[in-house]
Structures are given as structure tokens and as C-alpha cells.
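Aim 2 progress. For PDZ domain-containing protein, the working sequence is reproduced below.
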Amino acid sequence: MDIIGLSILKGIISFFVHPLTYITLIGAFILGLSRVKRDRRDFHTRVHDALDDVAFAIVPGIIAGAAFMVANLFLGITLPFSSTVALSIAAFLLLVTGQIRFLSPAFTFILPVVAAIFYTPIDFGSEQINSIQDGIGSSSMIAIVLLVGILVIMEGILISRNAVRQTSPRLVESKRGKLVGGHEVQRLWLIPLFLFLPIGNVEAFSWWPLLHFGEQTYSFLLIPLPIGFQKLIHHALPVPELKRNGRQVLLLGISAVAIGLVSYVMNSHWLALITLGIVVIMRATILLLHRGKNKAAYFNERNEGLVILGILPESPADQMNLHVGEVISKVNGIPLGKGTDFYTALQRNAAHCKLEVLDFNGEVRFVQKALYHNEHHELGLLFVKEHRLHNIEEAQ
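Predicted C-alpha cells for this construct:
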């Protein structure tokens, strides 16, 4: 029991000494800073704090990692140490090059698979460095496809449950040169990946505790695995679109696990390898299908009403239970649309406002609130305003 406790402790330490842990957190913070900078350029105010991106990286990541650990205690998926090194290299390269949208397990596992098939060990003149390469050719394609499938399931759940929170409003120029609105998600999740290592891959490290199960000997390892997601939505409401995206990724992961189990029963590494290729192709297809470049913008200036592009947290609009994507048709009885300024209509009654709102079903509802002098001058609502296009072009 002491050996198990020591192995778990050193496995946890390996997570905190891994450079990728801190590179991922720094990357999340940089994403937050760039988002705040864009908010100030587009709307002259910050919508959400930069540290929110770091919190989103840590908390959901720990929950997902704990769920995977429980699953792997039953499944016992093993990877040679050399494959975990290849996985970390792939994730690092995607992170530092800013390719967040490709930080899906479907893509980051390409390098370990290619290395397992084609890599030939090189003599570096160091026993420990050489030992890292040992066993890379022994990577089980069945284990990898099961691992990828489970991680893609987790990715789908994270997209549909977490990516929908705090989507970032932004202004973009359409192909016709007009200003339209959109919502962007740039999210990093830091997953503590709990794995079993076969003894042959750590035998050079005499200080690492080993566990014996029958005739097999294993050790624990906890490595950081960043999962990334990036998407700009301008043709639809962000939450339903992201949930649909997440469901498609989730179904892909479930399919991969199902075929992986079939390959395990059949002991077919070729079926597992083909499945991995299909997962990569399908994940790339999902990326392309959700680009929505040729679709009409949802958040744009209309002849009648103003579409709510964003709502500042804890603002009057937030307290009035308004929602992104709803249309404000009247303010204090004044119809809104092109040429009608929201703030001017709001000042018709400086102490009280009454809004006529069209919800997502096209039904009218009325909301009202008393106004105070220290509150946001537009209730904390963000709209697409054509006159801001010139300012954005200057900032760029």
C-alpha cells in the first residue's frame, strides 16, 4: 500500500513539474488578454476578466481529468513513456504556434501514432535519453484508439457544457464591407491525464516506484494534456450552435470507443489504426462544417429593432433577464432600427426605462427597470453599430 501511495504521489508531482502545465496556463492567460484588448477596441469596455480564461482551463480540466482517471482504473489503458513524450511534443507545438482549434485529441495523437509506426530509435549517447525511445514501436493501436475515443468524448462534453459559457461578442467586417457581429470562443482546458506505464519504459529510472499486478509491472504517470477549442459564430445564436458542435464531437468519440472495443475483441490492430484515421478525418470535417462563412449574419443592423450582441455582467440588462440574440424593438415607446440611437431613446425617461423585446420565438415581452445615474449608459447592452467600423479599421 505504501508503494501505491508513493507511486501516486510521484505521478502527481510529474504533472506539476511538467513544463506543458505552465505553458498551457500561460496560453490561457494570453487568450484572456487578447480577448480583453479586442473588447476594448470593439466596445470601449471589457466584457469579461482575462483571468476567467485561466479558471476555465483549470476547473473543468480537473473535473474531466478525475473522470478519466476513474474510467482508466477500470480499463487499464497503458502507453509507453515514449508515446507520452511524443504526445507532449505535439501539444506543445500546437500551443506555441497558436493553433488552438487543432488541439483536439484527434489531432494531437497523430504524432504518437506516426512515431509508433515509422520512428527508428537514435543513439544519443545517453542511457536515459535512449531509454525514452524504447518501446515506442510497441504502442498498442487498440489502446490508443480507446484513449482517443474517451478523450474526444470528454472534448465534446467540454464544448457543449463549458464552451457555451461566456462566449465573447465581437465585431467583424463582412465580405460586403459591412459591420456585423459574432461570438467567439477561444478555450483551453488543462486535463491531468492519468496513465499506466509498462515497466519496460521506466526501468532506467531506479527511483520511480513500481506496481506489480500478477506477472505485469506498471507505474503511474500524470501528464498535462491541453485540449483547445476555437470558433467564431456569426450566422446563428452561439449557445445552440456550440451545443450542436459538442454533440457531433461527442458522437464521434462514442463511435471511436465502440469500434475500439470491437478491435479489442477481434485483437485487430489494423481495425484500430483505420478507426484512428477515420476519427481524424471526421474531426476535421466537423471543423469545416461549422465555419459558416457563406451564411448570412445573425447579428447585424436591421431596419426594425436592435439585436442584442452582448450583455455586460452584473449590468442593468443582466438584471433585467435580457438574452443575447433577442431583439429590442422599442425603448420607452420609441421604435428602434437604423438611424435610431438606443441611448437617445433611453433618455426620453432618465429615471425609468421600458423595453419591448422580441424573444427567440418572435413573441413580444416587456421588461422595465428604474435607472440610476451611476449605471452603464446603455444598460450594459452591446449592439452592432455601423459607425464603429471606421474606428475598428483605424485600430487595426
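The chain has a mean pLDDT of 84. This observation will guide construct design in the next reporting period.
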